[in-house]
């Protein structure tokens, strides 16, 4: 029994620290939900935003240059472009649904966990030291909390009509 007590004493602080490392989400500004669909992030973002860019998500930021306004801060209807987290040839695109505060937005996106599902009303938290939206944490639906990984944001591609018409395709 002393060995079990010692194990509990050693692991309990680690478990508590892991729980406290993720900011709480109060649920007041979003209703995170998952739609069991089979779609990739690119066609989903294109249909939801009206941004007519084709090709892998990691190419969208460069392809938008000269075709669409590109900004460093989110705007409703804009496409958030994430740089690959493991390799430069990976990326992700998501549509900004709402601005909650200067450090929180709500997005809709697809295939976030490589499962083809559509994730609606998912909170995103700006964790960049300069509060410039260059680094974010994204809601992890299975765990009901922000994910631990920090993603690099390339920027936000503005919708052609600044969000007009995007609601007509909404899930």
Termini Cα gap: 55 Å
Secondary structure: number of strands: 9
Strand order of the largest sheet: 3-4-5-6-7-9
What portion of the residues fall into strands of 2 or more residues? 25-35%
Radius of gyration: 18 Å
Q: What is the domain total for the residues?
A: 1
- Helix fraction by DSSP (H/I, runs of at least 4): 10-25%
Highest-level CATH class: Alpha Beta
Shape: globular
Specify the biggest β-sheet.
6 strands, antiparallel, barrel
User: How many DSSP helices?
Assistant: 3
Please provide a brief summary of the model.
19% of the residues lie in helices and 30% in strands. It has 171 residues and is of the alpha+beta class. Strands 3-4-5-6-7-9 form a six-stranded antiparallel β-barrel.
Structure notes:
By secondary structure, the protein is an alpha+beta fold. It has one domain (24-169): Alpha-Beta Complex (endopeptidase fold (from Nostoc punctiforme)). The chain contains 3 helices and 9 strands. It has helices at 2-20, 41-49, 60-64; strands spanning 33-35, 70-71, 79-83, 91-101, 104-110, 118-126, 135-140, 145-146, 151-157. A 6-stranded antiparallel β-barrel has the order 3-4-5-6-7-9. β4 (91-101) and β5 form a beta hairpin. The longest helix is centred in the first third of the chain and has 19 residues, at 2-20. The chain starts with a helix and ends in a 14-residue tail after the last strand.
